[in-house]
Design goal:
Helix content: 40-55%
Number of strands: 6
Radius of gyration: 19 Å
Number of helices: 6
Strand content: 15-25%
Distance between the termini: 68 Å
Order of helices and strands: EEEEHEHEHHHH
Amino acid sequence: MTPNTTTEGCDWDKIIMGVDPGTNVMGYGILGIKGKKAEMIALGVIELSKFESHYLRLKRIYDRILSLVEQYLPDEMAIEAPFFGKNVQSMLKLGRAQGVAMAAALARDVPITEYEPRKIKMAITGTGAASKEQVREMLKRILNIKESQLLPQLDSTDALAAAVCHFYESTRPVINAGKSSWKDFIAKHPDRVR
């Protein structure tokens, strides 16, 4: 499927690629960061159901993700972690799909961060139990996305949500960056403690 692209040729500070792994449909979203502002660059899905063999699907994932990395040159990738279900075979296939997407990014030295689905939903909607539709609606508001720019497949907005979650996580102030404790403070400033 042709990606839905909004802005071409912008001078971004950072580009984050989000991926929602799947074995039938894999979503991706490209997020451009300029200062403290995020904007959707592209949104799309990789249709995999037409491939009979799981191995051909994995090859398609690798080829397409590598192509997207080479097209958009992301600085980082945020990927949704598989959630644990009851069907072990489905979990194995989903894990392979995620691993192949990660391998394609790593082939071009793109650092990867993995996020649990609940964490992504919490970052976007404020609740880890949000539906895919709620995530989509919040992304429309957060990023000023027009309905006409969205695809019917919710996998695409799930992928974009992973990128936005990563943007939020990477811009949060780091507390205790130096890993100091009260004990360290006392040792460094004995004159300030009674």
